[in-house]
Design a protein that fits this description.
Blueprint lengths: L1 E4 L2 E10 L3 E8 L7 E13 L5 E6 L8 E2 L19 H4 L2 H15 L17 H26 E7 L5 E7 L11
Antiparallel strand pairs: 1-2, 2-3, 3-4, 4-5, 5-6, 7-8
């Protein structure tokens, strides 16, 4: 099975299965580097499923790891996410972005968009479900506000009636919705 980048071949792999392992035999290269050929076994492990049957797992081939995983990722050598130091996008987000993303995902499942505000109750959804969702979105929205405001607050000045200057915080960003009052 070959793979390519911009139409140029960058690698190919062959699999050979045995009783308790798979032998990966592949060649790859990066940009104009010479081709590298590698061949090594990846151990397999079977676990029983709850309703019968068996599930097959890979064991990470990195000698110091050996994690049981469903997917191996290639980057010179096929290994698990931890060995390649891969992270999910949400793990790299700032906390306020993570809260915003969660709230946005909930709103989208209800059929709305963040820009349009909170959507009407979807047809067929129970009232107790929507009434449980609203406080969750409020908490996430409040969490987002509390984390953004210190970063976006600017110090401004106003003059009092007696001519003295008073410092005040001017909030540049506010995330707030008018939630339904069901």
């Amino acid at each position: 099975m070959p793979w390519s980048r911009n139409g140029e071949p960058t690698g190919s792999i062959k699999l050979r299965s045995e009783r308790d392992r798979v032998i990966l035999s592949y060649r790859h290269r990066r940009f104009d580097e010479p081709w590298k050929e590698q061949e090594y076994p990846v151990m397999l492990e079977w676990t029983p499923c709850n309703y019968g049957g068996m599930r097959i797992w890979f064991r990470c081939p990195i000698w110091s790891c050996g994690r049981r995983v469903a997917v191996l990722y290639g980057n010179g050598m096929f290994a698990c996410r931890q060995c390649h130091q891969l992270a999910y996008e949400s793990q790299r987000e700032q906390p306020y972005n993570r809260a915003f993303s969660r709230a946005q995902a909930i709103v989208e499942t209800l059929g709305g968009t963040w820009a349009d505000g909170f959507p009407d109750k979807p047809k067929g959804m129970h009232w107790r479900t929507i009434l449980a969702i609203v406080p969750r979105i409020r908490r996430l929205s409040l969490s987002t506000k509390q984390q953004i405001m210190p970063k976006s607050a600017m110090i401004g000045f106003r003059f009092g009636r007696d001519g003295t200057r008073h410092a005040e915080a001017l909030v540049a960003i506010s995330i707030g919705w008018k939630f339904p009052t069901w």
